[in-house]
Automatic annotation (TrEMBL):
Stored Gene3D superfamilies: Winged helix-like DNA-binding domain superfamily/Winged helix DNA-binding domain (1.10.10.10)
Name listed for the protein in its UniProt record: Transcriptional regulator PadR-like family protein
Organism this protein belongs to: Ekhidna lutea
One Pfam family this sequence matches: PadR
InterPro entries: Metal_resp_DNA-bind_regulator (IPR052509), Tscrpt_reg_PadR_N (IPR005149), WH-like_DNA-bd_sf (IPR036388), WH_DNA-bd_sf (IPR036390)
Superkingdom: Bacteria
Domain Transcription regulator PadR N-terminal residue range list: 13-88
Length: 109
């Protein structure tokens, strides 16, 4: 089983976890666009979600059919126990490395 996450996959997985049980493509896209201040293609979100689901890091379910969506259903995502484990490991690694940065003084920018 592959437990590696790319940076973008990690951001998507973090967002799914943060939006617990209410995460779907558009909500993830809006959140990440706002938080990163970058233009993100919605297709990239969907590709990342498919990869995360294939790896077992997220599960999905369909919501009900709505008129506002032209009879289509939203596909909701939720982080799995394995996904949470991978996020925790990533957080621990990044925190461990960050804590090794010596106290440095930089000129104010």
């Amino acid at each position: 089983m592959e437990y590696q996450l790319g940076e973008f996959e990690e951001l998507v997985l973090l967002t799914v976890a943060a939006q617990h049980n209410e995460a779907y493509g558009v909500s993830i896209h809006e959140f990440l666009t706002e938080e990163t201040k970058k233009k993100i293609n919605i297709s990239a979100i969907h590709v990342a979600l498919k990869r995360l689901e294939k790896k077992g890091f997220v599960d999905s379910r369909f919501g009900g059919i709505t008129e506002e969506r032209g009879g289509r259903r939203k596909k909701y995502y939720i982080v799995t126990a394995l996904g949470k484990k991978v996020l925790d490991a990533s957080h621990d690694l990044r925190t461990s490395i960050y804590q090794r940065i010596p106290s440095l003084q930089f000129a104010k920018i």
